[in-house]
Amino acid sequence: MIARAALAALALAACGAPPPADRPTPPAPVDAAVDAPPPPDPATAALLAALAEQRDVACACADAACADEAAALAVQWGLDHPDVVRAATPTPAEQAEAQALIEAAEHCLDRWLGTGSPHPAH
Q1: Cα radius of gyration rounded to whole Å, the chain
Q2: Residue-range domain boundaries for the chain
Q3: What is the pLDDT of residues 59-111, one digit of tens each?
Q4: Residue 47: how many CA atoms within 13 Å on its side-chain side?
Q5: pLDDT digits (tens, 9 = 90+) for 29-52
Q6: Residue 51: how many CB atoms within 10 A of its CB?
Q7: C-alpha to C-alpha distance for 58 and 75, rounded to whole angstroms
Q8: Given pLDDT bands bounded at 50, 70 and 90, which one contains residue 18?
Q9: How many CA atoms lie within 13 Å of 69's alpha carbon, on the beta-carbon side?
Q10: Residue 111 C-alpha from the chain's centroid
C-alpha cells in the first residue's frame, strides 16, 4: 500500500499535477490483499513438518544403530517426495526454520555417528 502511494505521488510530481488547493487529498484506500500475509504454501508446510519429524526421530536415538536408521529415513523421505521438495517455496523465515531443523537433527545424529561413542556428550 505504501509503495502504491509513493508511486502515485511520484507520478503526480512528474506530471506536474498538484492536488487541488480547495479540498484535502483523501487517504488512499486500504488494500487488504497487499497488506495480508501470503497464503500458506502446502508443499513448504509438508517439508517443514517432515523436517520436524526427522529432527524428533534423530534426537530420540539412544545409539548409533538408531542414528543410522534415522539418517537413512531422512534421505529416503527426500527420495520419496521430490515433488514436495521441488514445489516448496519457503519464505525467508521458513528457510531459516528449515535450516534450524536440519541443524538440530544433524547435531543429534552427530552424537552417535560423529564420535562413535556409546555415551553422547551433552
Answers
A1: 25
A2: 2-35, 42-113
A3: 999 999 999 999 999 999 999 999 999 999 999 999 999 999 999 999 999 99
A4: 25
A5: 666 556 677 777 999 999 999 999
A6: 20
A7: 12
A8: very low
A9: 9
A10: 27
Q: Shortest CA distance to 63 belongs to which of 104, 106, 103, 111?
A: 111
Cell numbers at 37, concatenated = 500475509
Q: What is the DSSP string of the chain?
A: -HHHHHHHHHHHHHHT-PPPTTSPPPPPPP-HHHHSPPPP-HHHHHHHHHHHHHHHHHHH--SHHHHHHHHHHHHHHHHH-HHHHHH----HHHHHHHHHHHHHHHHHHHHHHTT--SS---
- Rounded Cα distance between 107 and 67, Å, is 11
Number of Cα atoms under 13 Å in the Cβ half of residue 27: 5
Q: What is the pTM of this model?
A: 0.63
**Which set of grid coordinates corresponds to residue 36?**
495480508
